[in-house]
């Protein structure tokens, strides 16, 4: 875009008025000249109605010029600045070109900071015009959510300040960054199968839930109200008792029972790694149900 110098646009009536004014002025000058040649030149005066007409025409021309120069600004979305709009806002050509190149890539301006970063306009320009920027409501809501989330992230909550994971519902979990409706439902379903979480580590049971999202959940939630079942001594547990552990089926419970019986007890959960197909990665969860005495 190459802004052009401002030019006044005269209508037909304006041109007629100017022509009439020139004729009138010319006539007055001629009259003054001949009056001075007259003996009664000292008595010469301009007719008052004619004088008022001249003033009215001059004022009309001035108003026309002022109207051309004035430009009323209404709120606008900076993503849709046109050539004419940029010219009207006195936006530098280089800045407008940068904005166009950015938008042609399918990218959007979502804040005043974005606009200044992309276009490189001066602080004075931003101070004058950015107050007229108007973004869609959903953009403003998203920005507010990000601000709220950042405020929460800056403050690490204590155990007492965190909410109980066993009391969280789907709507609560959806509000956490990265969870979404799908994983919120999966977390609730897993909690119900376990008859309530016994520890935060059981979030790992939710297939596909990333480490980052687990940490995000645990920033705001932790298990406070767990079931009051006593831990079972794995060295004295029967096959039936072991089978009741959420992470064991009958076949694995039988293998564990026989393994412990053959060794007359174990002193560490790590010894169970010698059992074929034993889920080593589940040991942290198993400790919520079993102990070694």
Structure in words:
Helix content is about 50%, strand content about 5%. Mean pLDDT is about 80; it is low at about 1-10. It is rod-shaped. The protein has four domains: about 10-70; about 80-135; about 165-220; about 230-290. The strands form two sheets. A two-stranded parallel ribbon has the order 1-2. The protein has a two-stranded parallel ribbon with strand order 3-4. By secondary structure, it is mainly alpha-helical. The longest helix has 26 residues, at about 10-35. The chain starts with 11 loop residues before the first helix and ends with a strand. It has 13 helices and four strands.
Could you give a short description of this structure?
It contains 13 helices and four strands. The protein is mainly alpha-helical. The chain starts with 11 loop residues before the first helix and ends with a strand.
Structural class: mainly alpha
Mean pLDDT: 82
Distance between the termini: 82 Å
Number of structural units classed as domains: 4
Number of helices: 13
Q: What's the helical proportion of residues?
A: 40-55%
* Unreliable residue stretches: 1-8
Instruction: Note the run of SSEs as H and E.
Output: HHHHHHHEHHHEEHHHE
Question: Strands of the largest sheet, in order across it?
Answer: 1-2
Total strands: the figure is: 4
Taking the sheet with the most strands, its summary is: 2 strands, parallel
InterPro entries: Endo/Exo/Phosphatase_dom_1, RuvA_2-like
GO biological process, one term: protein secretion by the type II secretion system
Transmembrane segments: 16-35
Protein name: DNA uptake protein ComE
